[in-house]
Amino acid sequence: MANVVLDRVSKEYPGGVTAVREACLDVADREFVALVGPSGCGKSTTLRMIAGLEEATRGDIRIDGRRVNDVPPRDRDLAMVFQNYALYPHMTVAENLSFGLRLRRVSRDEIDRRVRETAALLGIADLLGRRPRALSGGQRQRVALGRAIVRRPRAFLFDEPLSNLDARMRVQMRVEISRLHRRLDATMIYVTHDQIEAMTMGDRVVVMKDGVIHQAGPPLEIYDRPTDRFVAGFIGSPPMNFIDGRIAAREGAPWFEAEGIALRVPAPVADRVALPAAGAAVAFGIRPEALEIREGPAGAGAGMEAMVDVVETLGADTLVHAQAGPHRLVARSSARIAGGARRVALVPDAARWHFFDSETGRHLG
Ligand SMILES: Nc1ncnc2c1ncn2[C@@H]1O[C@H](COP(=O)(O)OP(=O)(O)OP(=O)(O)O)[C@@H](O)[C@H]1O
Ligand SMILES: [Mg+2]
């Protein structure tokens, strides 16, 4: 298995698009790294450079310590699984699985053994004689995975492998790939634009935007301590609430003020965060589950007065959409909450306040 390193890797496509900027990443042997970001942020380009399908403009790519920039794809010994898994339609599942091995002149017995092993691992042993068109989307995706697994590559590269599947099948395959990761003990780099996939599957999540890696870390670290407003807003569903306003001083204590909102910054937050001086523009960030919904007023500075707008009942929990002055806010509660327009107070949990610099977007704490 393999350790994969990107050392200040950049990619400029002809025509001047910089798809990846100075990317640094060290994927440990057997690690599962999920690369996530909005469309066009450079995820596929990054993965394709690792695979050798795209040349890096600058920087080094190393696999197990060896620089591979000039090594052709087939000699890098990595397996890539794509969204459009392109199985050979005229071949059976067994033939699709064994095709790569036959090209590599692996012995007949060894091929049989690996195909049977892989099919059992993926639960497709009874489909070996079928052709792709007689398979469901999920089954086809399993065959595509199997084709990568039989090769026993040093690392697996996935580019949005589940995006052709329906929601239920995606959830199922997501768990299967995680399980597979544990069984195979393999290095996996997994590209997705779905932050839930990234959070649930990755040992580490790498968040990209506009060709730049904004943050890399374990899922909960990214969730609890985002480095900037982009990461904070991208990871989490529904997203973090942001309110643009400024720091104020009232009787020597810091407050956060925005149109229609005045919150006393709780002492633990003021101690933890290096707050800028009074008057400085900041964005206050609070996740939906960190907003407590109180019927009736909250007391001066303790909460935000808001009008309930829409209540979404999800079963396990409830999303309450409310309007505080010009600000739209979402609160999430595990309690069952009635719909109907009314005034409530939304009270932020003191342990989970976030502030962001309005200019740079940098997380202040
Ligand atoms: N062959 C190419 N020539 C020129 N520009 C390209 C090429 N391939 C990608 N790009 C550009 O590089 C940027 C990054 O593209 P990339 O495919 O890596 O994004 P992505 O994060 O995988 O997006 P998506 O989620 O939509 O798949 C985009 O602006 C894209 O238009
Ligand atoms: Mg892509």
Task: Describe, in plain words, how this protein is organized in 3D.
By secondary structure, this protein is an alpha+beta fold. The protein has 2 domains: 4-234, Rossmann fold, CATH 3.40.50.300; 241-357, Nucleic acid-binding proteins (OB fold (Dihydrolipoamide Acetyltransferase, E2P)). It has helices spanning 43-51, 93-103, 108-122, 137-149, 167-184, 195-201, 219-224, 229-234, 267-272; strands at 4-13, 17-27, 32-36, 58-63, 66-67, 78-81, 155-159, 187-192, 204-209, 212-217, 241-250, 253-258, 261-264, 281-286, 291-295, 304-313, 318-324, 327-333, 343-348, 354-357. Strands 6-7-8-3-9-10 form a 6-stranded mixed β-sheet, sandwiched between helices. A hairpin with a 2-residue loop joins strand 9 (204-209) and strand 10 (212-217). Helix 2 packs parallel to helix 4. The longest helix is centred in the middle third of the chain and has 18 residues, at 167-184. The radius of gyration is 25 Å and the shape is elongated. The chain starts with a strand and ends in an 8-residue tail after the last strand. The protein binds adenosine-5'-triphosphate and magnesium ion (MG). Magnesium ion binds at residues 43-44.
